[in-house]
Structures are given as C-alpha cells and as structure tokens.
Amino acid sequence: AVRVVVTGIGGFVGKAAGVAFARAGHDVVGVFRRSNPKELEGVPGIALVQADLRDCSELPPRFDCLVHCAADVPATCPSAAELYASNVDGTRTLFNHVAGAGARGVVFLSSMSAYGRIRDSVVTETTPIDSPDVYGQSKLAGEQCLAGMVERHPHMTALVLRLPAVVGK
Questions:
Q1: To which H or E segment does residue 157 belong?
Q2: How remote is the C-alpha of 71 from its chain's centroid?
Q3: DSSP assignment of 127-145
Q4: Which of 5, 16, 37, 90 could form a disulfide with 53 if both were Cys (CB 3.0 to 4.6 A apart)?
Q5: Residue-wise over 113-136: b if at least 16 C-beta within 10 A, else e?
Q6: What is the pLDDT of residues 20-44, one digit of tens each?
Q7: Rg (Cα) of the chain, in Å, rounded?
Q8: Strands of 21-116, DSSP E
Q9: Measured between alpha carbons, how far is 83 from 81 in angstroms, rounded to an integer?
Q10: What is the structure's pLDDT at 166?
C-alpha cells in the first residue's frame, strides 16, 4: 500500500480522491483546516488530520504521494491579500515538507483561473495567460513552486491539473 496525503479532504474533490485511494487499499492521511469531513471518521484506510498548511507539523513525517486539493477561494476568503498569502504560503510550506518526507509524487490541483481571460475556443497547455485574478495568480505561484521543487529533487514526479470549477458529480 502507498501512503497518500490528501489536502483539502473536506472539499468535494479532496473527499472523492481520499475515498478512492482508501478503497484501492492505500493508507490515506486526509488533511483539512476548516471543513471537517466528519462523515469520513472511521472509514477504513483514512486518518483525518486538522492542520493549517502554513505549519505542517501535524502532517506525517514520511509518505509516498501528495494530492494537494486544498485552497482558499474568493467565495469564502474575500480578502485578496489573505487569499493569495494563504494559498501561496501554504503550498510553499507543504511542498517543502513533501521534499523532506520522501514522497516521490505530487498531484497539484490548480485551476483554469490560472489562464485569466481565455480567448481560445480550445484550451491547452499553450493557451496564453492573460490577466488572471488573485485566485488564478495564487495557483500559478503554486505551479511555479512545484516546478522548482521537482527541479531541485529530480527523483520526484509531479502533475498539475488545471481544473474548471467543480461543483458536483
């Protein structure tokens, strides 16, 4: 079994990812800050940890893989400066922890917001970035942080998913 840390397990995507890994027989450490997924308490294979990612002392010291779903969003964090600082500082601290935890893989849930204004009819990795909002800027900063981590730790692999808004199944 692989030990997987899933941040944002209180959110829709994080919860689905955590449950899927646990059902596949992996050991999941689900991290939440405010959104406590009480319905996951006692689910075999999932251990819940409440933590602010700007302080990773509550996270396991060793694990194999990270699925980083956690982020403040404008709907629940109206202060642009606070949202940016929380997302970027939390992601940077988390990625530094991952590098020391022996993890070999990271999946980072970014956002289509990173593109800003989209003028192309089809979006690809080469779609130009044009004036993203503060949330999109925070996701771009997280992507850059991840790229730097992989450059410094070539044994690690990383995947960035620029998801659209996910509101249900």
A1: strand 157-163
A2: 7
A3: SPPB---HHHHHHHHHHHH
A4: 90
A5: bbbbeeeeeeeeeebeeeebbbbb
A6: 999 999 999 999 999 999 999 999 9
A7: 16
A8: 27-32, 46-50, 65-68, 105-111
A9: 6
A10: 82
